[in-house]
Amino acid sequence: MKEIELQYQPDLLHEGEVPSDIRTEELVLNMGPQHPSTHGVLRVILHTDGELVLKAVPYIGYLHRCAEKIAEKVTYRQFTPYTDRLDYLAAMNNNLGFALAVEKLGGIETPQRADYLRVIFSELNRIASHLVATGSYGLDMGAFTPFVYCFREREWILDLFESACGARLTYSYITIGGVRDDLPDGWVGRCRDFLDYFEPKISEYNDLLSFNHIFVHRTGNVGVCPPDLALAYALTGPCLRGSGVKWDLRKATPYSRYDEFDFDVPVGRGQNGTLGDCWDRYFVRIEEMTQSVRIIRQALDRLPDGPVQAKVPRMLKLPAGEIYCEVENPRGQLGFHLVSDGGTSPYRLKVRGPSFCNLSVLPVLARNCLLADISALLGSLDIVMGEVDR
Amino acid sequence: MYTFERPHVEYQGLSRVIVRGAAALAGIIAPWLRRLAWVVFLAVAAMLVVFIWVVGRFINPLLPWFIRDLVVVLGLLGFACVVAIIGIWAERKVSGRIQSRLGPMRTGAWHGWAQSLADGLKFVQKEDLIPREADEPLFRLAPYVTLVPAFCAYLALPFGVGWVFRSGDVGLLFVLAMLAVEVLGVIMAGWASNSKWSLYGAMRAACQLVSYEIPMGLSLLAAVVAVGSLNLVDIGQAQAGGWFSWLVFQNPFLFLAFFTYYIASLASCKRSPFDLPEGESELVAGFHTEYSGFRFVMFFFAEYVAMFAVSALATIIFLGGWHSPLSGLSKGTQMQFVAFGDTSPLWFVLKSTFLVWVQMWFRWTLPRIRIDQVMHACVKYLLPFTLLLFLGSSLWQLYDNQAHPAFQGFANILHYGLGCVGLLLLGLYFAGAGYGYYNRNRLVGQMARNHLPGA
Amino acid sequence: MTPSDIIAVLKQYDAGGIVSVVADLPYPHVLVKAEHLVAVAAFLKTDPQLRFDLLRCISAVDWPANNGMEVSYDLISTSFVHTFAVKVMLDRRDPQVESVSGVWPAAQWHEREAFDLMGVRFLRHPDLRRILMPEDWTGHPLRKDYQDVVEYRGLKFNP
User: Fold this and answer.
1) For chain A, what is the domain count?
2) Which of A109-113, A341-345, B259-263, C23-27 is predicted least confidently?
3) According to CATH, what is the number of the domain C3-156?
4) What is the chain C residue with the closest CA to A254?
């Protein structure tokens, strides 16, 4: 096999350096597809001068599973399980985005109970996803215990999901027209028990990790992303809000009756370093968990009765046209550009993964940071390769 | 779709016969061992005791000195191995409990006590991988250079007055020197692995370990100045009066020196929060990434052996060594406190084990410190501070005697005050532990109680 | 601002570059000529009434029936919360358009993906190379007339 010639030629950034009598060389490090802290199959080629990173070039595509090509072959209903696997940690939200896109284009109305259930499950999945983000961020920083605590809490959420739809990670529960099944008996009580149990745990994480002196020094002032840079690179979600931009699709362009709920949008304030550093992005996630608990409580209190699914034909045909529909995922804005030609499968479905855009800012943020900060950076951007590569 | 040929590797010749024979034999013996396990254990223990008594009574006076020394060294080696084995098991149980899970429970019926043995067996039968481009002689040598000095440190550690292999007048320096040789092994491992990531681990280890030797030594010197001898037995004997005679409470500089020594020793053992050289999340396994099988076990052992060694050093120098905290209280009264006697190697092991447990506690609580912050902390904070402590301790010795009665009175008050502070800290520790234990169900929560086994 | 207002402002700026206009939901957009794209993009971003500062998505759609390749740019404004889209229609045999990564740096990776999967060349892009497929892959997989590769670097794929 002949070796691949990379078209990209590495160039030394420090052209203006004065030569000293100690001969130093730039080291090209491969933070390969298999690495404990790259959160999936991401390859980053680092040019380092000692511990200082001069250049970081990410290579993606290791998890490319041709979801968009498959969408052109399967029907709309059949594509829902594929949306689960885009950002596999927030499957409910992915399902919701796709369902909304199809419903908006097809003019399908969902019943009120379905909307409330969609909100409950999306927010529970947001909590679960943020727990993974928090726990694995602690793990990257060397704090092994918060990881297990977060997963312990996540187990209860996954138990709730399992009792509602039978699956723990890829649910296909939020479908076109509503929600697949109604809740089992006692589910609402168990969910409330979980919320009562979970809320004090957030302050436990703050004591253990968020305000831990060592953690603050590892993540504060690291990977500072000013708000204009964040908007320029189309960061969304906690990455954008961590930079101080108060932008949340659930408030700006509400969908699925989110405007009926009362919640805050946490924004980074630069309280433990600079505005837009890794700590801000991380802490926005912690605060979002509190807000999600608030939303779920309101939804459970006001949960209306009624059907959970609109009547949707099995071989759904959408009218010719196109739509771009976005939802607020735990990682950012997940967008579906759906082009239909009147048939039973999409003519073109482009998925805009939030982690795809969040990751594109890595080369800019990684300049002149230390090697240990790369893990801090990747952990704070909270990427899932499933939606980077699709 | 895509097939490849896996190289067929098997033992050949005599090794094959031995391995197959051992496996067959083990298959026959194992069920019987399980049934008669306790009987066998007690029988072996009884035979061992009898053997030691017989040897000690009849054979010992006849042996030349080097056989006696060899036996002692082998005993120390065995002790160090037992320390490492129990340490590995304890680490896993401790980490499990801190993380609200149980740790090993199945290997060996009682709380997975045989986990270390199972791990050892697993590592021994692994393939011996050496990377093709690795520097083979250095690669092979590195684990030994790391492990042997850690064992050697035990040669000068006194477990009690008569319980030391060689109590030299420079015992302390010997132990520090042995612990410092480990750095060489780490650098060799990182370089010889021919992996950039291992090299990073080695370079970080090099600067971290070497830098933290200085505050470590200075803190110990502050105590040496108080006693006036580098002989570890003398330092231990100077603390023969119970809790308040321990060097850690003698003056505020020594009190702080204990903590700075402990922190510096954490860094010198590459324990969290200073475990960046083997930082799992960034460097996979740092300098020992490319090591597998028994070579890796050596690094692993070296870590636990060194942990116990630095804790033992802290115990001897600051915490009274082999003396009971209650010794001296029974002087002049009719009562004799029996709790394993006034001086006993068991006290020494108990105190060192407590310090090792605190090391594990730190590891599972705190995140990792970045290497530039580690060096920053050492050079900018710890080093000047320990210099001050050394200076303070020296001046204290100068003035704390009969020639300056006023200062001596003040020093006395501080001395006993610090002792009470120590008692308070100990009380807080046990109070916290008790609170956590009695409220363990409530603290974990209702849902956990319904789901966690044994909660 | 409603889509009609946005289109009115845009027409004031550059009526000649607009080919066609769609103002109704679900997808209000404007089709511009490929040469006018960067100017229109810069205007959309910087105009104080519009301020489309977030480039949400760049998608390329293959229309072999019309012999065209359509690239659409979805935009949203975080200050005014209005959404809009800009499209260009390119020749399918040799789709080329200038890159908007000077206006929105977010476009860099989106355009790399459009190049990789659809074959659209973006002129003056700082680093146009494949992003999802391996560097030495031939063909553009999302095209409608894409033939599946049978062998790649010695690996044979079952049909």
Assistant:
1) 1
2) C23-27
3) 3.30.460.80
4) C81
Chain C CA closest to residue B3: C155
Q: What is the pLDDT of residue B79?
A: 92
A30 lies in some domain: no
**By C-alpha distance, which of B261, B81, B425, A233 is closest to C105?**
A233
Question: How distant is the Cα of A136 from the closest Cα of chain B, in angstroms?
Answer: 10
Contact (CB, 8 A) for B244 and B415? yes
B99/A138 touch (CB, cutoff 8 Å), yes or no:
no
The pLDDT tens digits for A282-295 are: 999 999 999 999 99
Global ipTM: 0.91
Q: How confident is the model at residue B329 (pLDDT cuts 50, 70, 90)?
A: low
Bridge partner residues of C72 (DSSP): C59, C87
Q: Which of B98, B276, B447 sits opposite A372 (nearest CB)?
A: B276
**CB within 8 Å: B281 and A375:** yes
Q: What is the mean pLDDT of chain A?
A: 88
Give CA separation, A250 vs A97, A354, B186, in Å: 12, 15, 53
pTM for the model: 0.87
CB atoms inside a 10 Å sphere around CB B219? 31
* Interface probe, candidates B194, B272, B366, chain A, greatest A C-beta count within 10 A: B366
CATH classification at residue A360: 1.10.645.10
- Smallest CA–CA distance, residue A116 to chain C, in Å, is 24
What percent of chain A is helix, strand and coil (3-state, nearest 5)?
45, 15, 40
Question: Residue A19 falls within a domain, yes or no?
Answer: no
Phi, psi (rounded to 5 degrees) for C83: -115, 155
What is the torsion angle, in degrees rounded to the nearest 10, for the CA atoms of residue B114, residue B119, residue B120 and residue B126?
Answer: 150
Task: Name the DSSP class of B125.
Answer: T
Distance CA B342, CA B348 (A): 11
**Which residues of C, range 119-158, sit inside 8 Å of B by Cβ?**
155-158
Nearest chain A Cα distance for residue C123, angstroms: 17
Question: Measured between alpha carbons, how far is B260 from B152 in angstroms, rounded to an integer?
Answer: 24
For chain B, give every domain's residue range: 13-125, 130-330+340-402
> Given an 8 Å threshold on Cβ–Cβ distance, is A253 in contact with C153?
no
CB contact under 8 A, C26 and A104: yes
Which structure tokens are listed for B133?
């481009």
Predicted local distance difference test score (pLDDT) of residue B54: 85
Q: Which of A59, A259, A324 to mutate to test the interface with C (most CBs of C within 10 A)?
A: A324
Report the residue of chain A nearest C152, measured CA to CA. A1
Q: How many whole angstroms separate alpha carbon A382 and alpha carbon A283?
A: 12
Give the whole-angstrom CA distance, residue A178 versus residue A344. 19
End-to-end Cα spacing for chain C: 51
**C-alpha distances in angstroms, A46 versus A34, A92, A378, B283, B306?**
15, 35, 13, 14, 34
Residues of A with CB below 8 A from C60's CB? 350
Query: Locate tokens 């200076």: which residue?
Result: B391
Domain assignment of residue A357, given as a range:
67-389
